[in-house]
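Input sequence (139 aa), recorded before submission:
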Amino acid sequence: MGRIVIRFVERPDTKDSEAMIKWFCNVLGLSDDEGESIEEQMLREFADAAYNNEGLSSSEIKLETPMARSTVIYHLNRFMDTGLVVKRGRKYYLRASEMSKAIEEIEYDIEKEMKRMLDTAREFDRLMGARTKKKKKVD
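Predicted structure, token format:
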């Protein structure tokens, strides 16, 4: 996983899957509230593929606006940075077969990294405390 951005965005009141796709893209910092984004189109494609136990190559992703393969790959990399999409061989997949499972896996990764950061912070505090005590003895 790369860099994860999580923004607070009001959850849609509706039970509309399209509104949910937009919300996920907004929360993960992939798009904003303005119109339908490329990321929303891509997430829809990945969700459809996941529920059919399939992956997509960069050329199989159907977007409403034709764009260069390099642009599609740029957006795929953004999805991979969030941890929501993974690459296996030549295909890209939603991280899990269902969105809820994908989010649970991302949550697990975040918790694991936060624990590692906390352990490092505790070690840092210990070292800084020892350094401060040593400095006071010298003065």
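Checked by second reader. Residues 99-138 form the longest helix (40 residues).
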